[in-house]
Design a protein that fits this description.
Length: about 110
Amino acid sequence: MSDGEDVVDLIGDDYVRTILAETRESPKSVEALSEACDADPSTIYRRVERLEEAGLLTDEQRLDPGGHHYKEYDAALDAVHVHVRAEGYRVDIDFTEEEEPADRFTRLYEGFK
């Protein structure tokens, strides 16, 4: 997990904010995020990598009907709070709740049907 300054720098980027908003409700592929951001996939891959390094985005391997693998990305946070004080600022991140292992297995299994 990155420190608060890194998170503030990250969320200052328009692409990052769009990626987080798009992945908030359901996981998205880089292709879908590229369309949502109206940006080249290489640009989105760089942002996704930074978000994963900061612990703000997770990925999951998917299998398409043709047998190929690809990743979908999911926001790992609910909110970012920046508290401004005389001595500086503090950043608090509300992370999403962890999915129960049984629920995750069921969801993954149903995704392969």
